Recover the amino acids of this structure.
């Protein structure tokens, strides 16, 4: 699977991931204590939806573009905040002719949520994307960009000196053993920093492999969000993905329980929110 971020900017997977990211950061920064943030697979920071990569696939049309086209009055609060963050980034580039042209990647969404005193490290191993990421944040001392393997940085940086931290792990899934590497990284992170908040994105192409991965996490305080959209017969495009959140902050589950069914209905898909056995899972939205 080739999941270089630029090809899929603004698609349904980004909608799920970035909706959750914005809400997690809002809740984590509500507490008056410094926060450390690590993005292990950061991409370029932002994307031109009409550019070479995103323009080739046009996946934003079935993702973020559909959400923007909805009436603002009917949007759940978390969705409204996410779309506002997207609009702020797009406006940085001036008028775009009436439609969304520039979409923020996770580093831009993180940077927008940071407060003075918070610390942010963004890792990107791909040389071209790492260069673009450095250019995106040139002169910004609030973010440290590293062209390194994010898994290794995770192992080296935890626990953070701030004692409060959030780790986003969003691998490209180009390696055949990515699920194993991902599970190992999460386990290592939890051993070093058990109280940290972790958001872990994964594709669902093999249902059994995805379920096995979730089972290996073993974290008692976690919730899993999954989003599925219709796929064309015979296509190899991704049509389902998930996000596991370990140690979610208070009120996060409530916000996602409201937002996920709404997003699924807008995208003509299905979503579910799976919480630990002590709580009942939210019902799946209709297909």
């Amino acid at each position: 699977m080739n999941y270089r971020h630029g090809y899929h900017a603004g698609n349904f997977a980004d909608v799920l991931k970035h909706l959750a990211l914005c809400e997690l950061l809002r809740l984590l920064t509500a507490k008056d204590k410094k926060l450390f943030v690590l993005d292990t697979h950061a991409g370029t920071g932002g994307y031109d939806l009409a550019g070479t990569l995103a323009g080739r696939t046009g996946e934003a049309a079935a993702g973020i573009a559909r959400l923007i086209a909805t009436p603002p009055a009917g949007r759940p609060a978390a969705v409204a905040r996410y779309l506002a963050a997207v609009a702020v980034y797009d406006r940085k580039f001036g008028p775009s002719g009436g439609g969304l042209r520039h979409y923020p990647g996770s580093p831009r969404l993180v940077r927008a949520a940071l407060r003075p005193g918070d610390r942010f490290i963004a890792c990107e191993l791909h040389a071209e994307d790492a260069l673009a990421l450095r250019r995106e944040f040139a002169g910004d001392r609030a973010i440290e960009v590293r062209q390194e393997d994010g898994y290794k940085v995770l192992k080296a940086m935890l626990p953070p000196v701030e004692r409060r931290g959030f780790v986003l792990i969003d691998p490209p899934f180009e390696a055949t053993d990515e699920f194993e590497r991902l599970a190992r990284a999460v386990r290592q992170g939890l051993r070093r920093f058990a109280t940290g908040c972790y958001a872990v994105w994964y594709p669902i192409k093999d249902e059994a492999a995805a379920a096995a991965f979730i089972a290996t996490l073993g974290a008692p305080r976690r919730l899993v969000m999954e989003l599925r959209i219709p796929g064309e017969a015979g296509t190899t495009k991704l049509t389902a993905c998930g996000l596991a959140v370990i140690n979610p902050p208070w009120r996060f589950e409530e916000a996602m329980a409201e937002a996920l069914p709404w997003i699924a209905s807008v995208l003509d898909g299905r979503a579910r929110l799976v919480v630990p056995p002590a709580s009942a899972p939210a019902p799946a939205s209709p297909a």
